[in-house]
Design goal:
By secondary structure, the protein is an all-alpha fold. It contains twelve helices and two strands; from the N terminus they run ααααβαααααβααα. The two termini are about 25 Å apart.
């Protein structure tokens, strides 16, 4: 119960704090944009971007107090142990992540839902791949640290393993479907609070829940179970990065085909079809059944895990 309370306080603090902080920063940005030439771009930014940035800033700022309150001190406790197996785990995860979504991508092309795009040049493809790899690495590292290292790591201390996996997976999936909303008219101190319900509605929209939300939830469960079974986040980071890479490049690599994807195959989003859900379920079963050799902690990991939170 204590962990659930801490996580609830964290998320409520981020949402309410961001909603109240955004109007003040919006007004400050408008003023600075008019007074300082180098900051003129701030004056043209819409309010919803200020709100999104405030939510992100508070989410990052609140992580350290949350980690301390949950007793997750040290790199090993946050999933960054097992240094001797790091690169092998990352590589295996990348292969699994890239391979699983490549099945979905190839199925969409084979069924005529999407066709390969013949217009990109070799330089364009290299640029696209480079940007996608950078984004995949950053997103996978940040999200695995938050959702598996902190949230799942805290939940499994005070709840059953199944409850921790399911809860962290639902949170992971739901937050990916916050609606993108805009604020028309003048910005007042309560404008952020007015936008929050509209943003949260995206988490419950039927078009997001079935099957895309369920697909992401099953993927989140696979990531959490992989962390639990391997003893570190390295495989999960690689798996996540492989997914993000495909999500970033597929729309540019393909064009609409002659056939609609429908509920079975989905669209260029890759995760919004029942076939993608089946692939994720198969991956979850594979993670559960694979005979993982849990690496022994290194001397550095053992020392870090014994250190009390500072």
């Amino acid at each position: 119960m204590r962990t659930a309370g801490l996580l609830s306080i964290y998320f409520l603090g981020v949402l309410l704090g961001g909603a109240l902080l955004a109007p003040m920063l919006f007004q400050l940005g408008r003023w600075l944009g008019g007074e300082v030439g180098l900051l003129s771009g701030l004056a043209s930014q819409p309010f919803h971007r200020y709100l999104n940035r405030c939510l992100l800033i508070l989410a990052l700022a609140g992580l350290w107090p949350l980690i301390r309150a949950c007793g997750l001190g040290g790199a090993a406790a946050l999933g960054f142990g097992g240094a001797t197996e790091r690169w092998r785990r990352l590589g295996l995860g990348l292969v699994a992540g890239f391979g699983s979504l490549s099945l979905v991508a190839l199925a969409l092309v084979a069924t005529g839902v999407r066709d390969w795009n013949a217009t990109p040049t070799a330089l364009g493809l290299l640029t696209l791949a480079g940007k996608a790899m950078l984004t995949a690495g950053v997103v996978a590292l940040m999200e695995e640290f938050l959702f598996r290292g902190v949230i799942f790591g805290a939940l499994r201390q005070s709840a059953s393993l199944l409850a921790a996996i399911v809860t962290s997976a639902v949170i992971y999936s739901g937050l990916h479907f916050l609606a993108r909303v805009e604020h028309p008219g003048a910005v007042a101190w309560y404008s952020g609070l007015m936008l929050l319900p509209r943003m949260l509605e995206g988490m419950l929209a039927p078009g997001n829940l079935w099957p895309a939300g369920l697909t992401l939830a099953v993927g989140g469960a696979a990531l959490a179970l992989a962390y639990q079974r391997t003893g570190s986040l390295w495989f999960s980071i690689g798996l996540h990065a492989g997914w993000v890479f495909w999500l970033k490049v597929f729309k540019s690599l393909t064009v609409p085909g002659l056939k609609p994807g429908g509920a079975l195959w989905g669209s260029e989003k890759l995760i919004d079809g029942w076939f993608a859900l089946g692939v994720m379920v198969a991956l979850l079963v594979g993670v559960a059944r694979w005979p993982w050799p849990v690496p022994k902690p290194s001397v550095r990991d053992e020392h870090a895990s014994r250190q009390p939170p500072s």
